[in-house]
Amino acid sequence: MNSVMFKRLVAAFGLVMVCVSAWALTDKQIAEVESRIQPAGKVCLQGDNTCGAAVASAGGAAKSGEEVYKSSCQGCHATGAGGAPKLGDVADWGKRAEKGVDTLHKHAIEGFSDIGMMPAKGLCMSCSDEEVMAAVDYILENSK
Ligand code: HEC
After folding, report:
1. Which ligand 1 atom minimizes the distance to the CA of 121?
2. Which terms does the record give in the GO molecular function aspect (predicted)?
3. Most buried of the four, 52, 104, 113, 124, by CB within 10 Å?
4. Closest Cα to atom 29 of ligand 1
5. Which atom of ligand 1 lies closest to the CA of 104?
6. 114, 110, 130, 134: which is closest to 122 by C-alpha?
7. How many domains does the chain have?
8. Range of the domain at 94
């Protein structure tokens, strides 16, 4: 290797090092590394939306009534399968609402069988009671 080639090599190597270190030091990169090295069980303070995704995946954030309805109830309640009162059927839901919202909440959580088979929690075993009640409210809201 002659000296010119060697100098070029050193210069090229230097350039690469400058690029690498500049890349490594951008704020974005540092932030990314910091987020990766955070402990998995990091406490999320309420109102801190920077770790909201972690809370949701841990089951912390409640699903809305509409979300629960769409994922767990509409299979029967959109079509009327097995005698399920259809969403939007004002007459059918009107009759049921006469029992009182509390009773409808209870029947949705525990299950109910009169003319058909309403399974407990609409088979959404991961749903909290509150989420099932919110789904009932969503159905009633859209059936009057
Ligand atoms: C496998 C089908 C099925 C699924 C899934 C289902 N339901 Fe039902 N649901 C029924 C049937 C059938 C009835 C009618 C039962 C009867 O009157 O005998 C019913 C009735 C109800 C009633 C009325 C109870 C009463 O006292 O009249 C409510 C409230 C209700 N469902 C809420 C829900 C909610 C909320 C979900 C989702 C979390 C859900 N259902 C999912 C089939 C289903």
Report:
1. 38
2. electron transfer activity; heme binding; iron ion binding
3. 104
4. 104
5. 29
6. 110
7. 2
8. 65-141
